[in-house]
Amino acid sequence: MRHLHRRVSSCFFPLLLLIAVLTAPAGAQRISYHRVEQGTVEQRLKTAPAKNPEREPELHQLFEGAGCAGEALTETAVKGAKSPNLICTLRGESDSIIVVGAHFDKVAGGEGVVDNWSGASLLPSLFESLKGEPRRHTFVFIGFTDEEKGLVGSEAYAKRLTREERSKIRAMVNLDSLGLSPTKVWLSHADKNLAEALDTVAYAMKLPLAAVNVEQVGSSDSESFAKRKIPSLIIHSVTQETLPILHTAKDQLAAIHMDDYYASYQLVAVYLAYLDHTLPAGKDEAPAAQK
Q1: Got the DSSP string for 21-39?
Q2: Is residue 289 domain-resident?
Q3: Residue 291 domain-assigned?
Q4: 146 CB-contact burial (10 Å; exposed 0-12 / middle 13-18 / buried 19+)
Q5: What is the CATH number of the domain that holds 251?
Q6: In sequence order, what DSSP letters do the residues of 87-141 get, joined into one string?
Q7: What region does 10 belong to: left with phi over 0, alpha with psi -120 to 50, or beta?
Q8: Is residue 13 one of the residues assigned to a domain?
Q9: Is residue 145 part of a domain?
């Protein structure tokens, strides 16, 4: 994977990004998304509740503010967990699914802004970025409960999936601990095709992306999907230098580099739109990993 160390412009204009999609007969596809303003993305991050029982209700409000409400926004109880999983569904033209997840719970030490309100509060902005255009895939945005207690929420969700339901999931993109540095991907735990697609988008947008494997940190919610042969990817920002921030009193808003955080939002928003165009959609187009 290329390591792209370009600086992000502080004035990144709204865009309809034209990317050559080699798999498409027509040659070029128009990849579109609505850019949520940086102030809105930052404000959602700043809402991080100090107590775990308050975090799912706050995320619920953020989704409603972004336009995901009613039947599209559901809560699923998880055995042994005090908070439910929170699920926002953006219906597409097919029942092929792209899951975008992030856990909202925190450990006792610190404010849990980095780990992982940085990922959870980004989900409503990503929904808002995609909702304005027809999508080939159905996007399922999930705020997972009790990741810190052993991937409880994601394991409960993935375990309930039937074989047919698993076969419809084309990708699981997990967001965990963003904003400490420019965007990173946990390459050793990533599906190769998903990682290459992320690199393609980063290169086209001139946004920084590097591979940093973080086996020493533990696990993350995407593992609940990967072990069931669902293509998965973890996007983060942890480095050897910033690792000591996690699970300590240093995990607070001041640890976030806002420009890096917003660049990660832009990269993921366009990446999801790109996946929507490039991944197979429809029951007759199962991905290679699940055939």
Answers
A1: -TTSTTSEEEEE-----HH
A2: no
A3: no
A4: buried
A5: 3.40.630.10
A6: EEEE--SSS-EEEEEEE----SSS--IIIIIHHHTHHHHHHHHHTTS--SSEEEE
A7: alpha
A8: no
A9: yes
Cβ(80)–Cβ(98) under 8 Å?
A: no
HSE-CB at 144 with a 13 A cutoff on CA atoms is 31
Residue 251 CB neighbours (<10 A): 27
Identify the domain containing residue 148 by its residue range. 46-282
Q: What is the pLDDT of residues 197-256, one digit of tens each?
A: 999 999 999 999 999 998 766 789 999 999 999 999 999 999 999 999 999 999 999 999
What are 73-120's pLDDT values in tens digits? 999 999 999 999 999 999 999 999 999 999 999 999 889 999 999 999
Does pTM surpass 0.90?
no
Is 223 one of the catalytic residues? no
231/225 Cα distance (integer angstroms) = 8
Domain count across the chain: 1
Question: Given 56, 111, 147, 148, which residue is catalytic?
Answer: 147
Identity at 84, one-letter amino acid code:
P
